[in-house]
């Protein structure tokens, strides 16, 4: 099982008072039990660290780096990935879809990933499925 991990889920997993924390935790337990490979991008890492640092504090950043980062397979962004993401962003032509989102979609397409660990409906709009938050056998 291979799943793309998005900022929204990683943040919710680490922030106990986030409204999606319980769902993120259930998903994470489900993935761990099935030895799922969680794949993400270096852009998602930057976005997650920035949110944690700004909204929660540096201790949360350290927690993310020490406990969660080692469990992730990371696609490091280079010029090639950036160009693909930017091209998709321009084609999308929407203010509510970010460059990070577009990169995530490009990576998922390239790696034949169909499921995202995310709470962002933009993934669904782009043909992907979200982990079933409450219906995990």
What does this structure look like?
The protein has helices at residues 7-14, 21-33, 42-55, 58-68, 79-92, 99-110, 122-125, and strands at 2-5, 37-41, 72-75, 115-117, 129-130. The chain is of the alpha/beta class and 137 residues long. It has a domain at 2-77 and 114-130: 5'-nuclease (Rossmann fold, 3-Layer(aba) Sandwich). It has a 5-stranded parallel beta sheet with strand order 3-2-1-4-5. Strand 4 (115-117), helix 7 (122-125) and strand 5 form a beta-alpha-beta unit. Helix 3 (42-55) packs antiparallel against helix 4 (58-68). It is globular. The relative contact order is 0.21.
Task: State the main characteristics.
5 strands; five-stranded parallel beta sheet; Rossmann fold; 137 residues; alpha/beta; 7 helices
Form type: globular
**On the 0-100 scale, what is the average pLDDT?**
94
Order of helices and strands: EHHEHHEHHEHE
Low confidence ranges: none
CATH superfamily of the domain at 2-77 and 114-130: 5'-nuclease
Strand content: 5-15%
- Side-by-side strand order of the widest sheet: 3-2-1-4-5
Number of helices: 7
Total number of beta strands: 5
Can I get a quick summary?
The protein contains 7 helices and 5 strands. The chain is of the alpha/beta class and 137 residues long. Helix 1 crosses helix 3 (42-55), helix 3 runs antiparallel to helix 4 and helix 5 (79-92) crosses helix 6 (99-110).
Strand and helix map with partners:
Layout: E1 2-5, H1 7-14, H2 21-33, E2 37-41, H3 42-55, H4 58-68, E3 72-75, H5 79-92, H6 99-110, E4 115-117, H7 122-125, E5 129-130
Parallel strand pairs: 1-2, 1-4, 2-3, 4-5
Helix pairs in contact: 1-2, 1-3, 3-4, 5-6
């Amino acid at each position: 099982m291979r799943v793309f991990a998005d900022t929204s889920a990683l943040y919710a997993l680490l922030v106990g008072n986030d409204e999606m924390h319980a769902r993120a935790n259930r998903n994470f337990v489900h993935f761990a039990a099935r030895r799922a490979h969680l794949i993400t991008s270096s852009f998602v890492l930057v976005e997650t660290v920035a949110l944690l640092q700004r909204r929660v504090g540096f201790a949360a950043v350290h927690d993310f780096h020490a406990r969660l980062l080692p469990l992730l397979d990371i696609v490091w962004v280079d010029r090639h990935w950036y160009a693909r993401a930017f091209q998709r962003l321009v084609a999308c032509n929407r203010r509510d879809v970010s460059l990070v989102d577009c990169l995530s979609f490009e990576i998922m397409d390239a790696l034949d990933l169909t499921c995202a660990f995310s709470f962002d409906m933009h993934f669904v709009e782009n043909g992907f499925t979200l982990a079933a938050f409450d219906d995990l056998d």
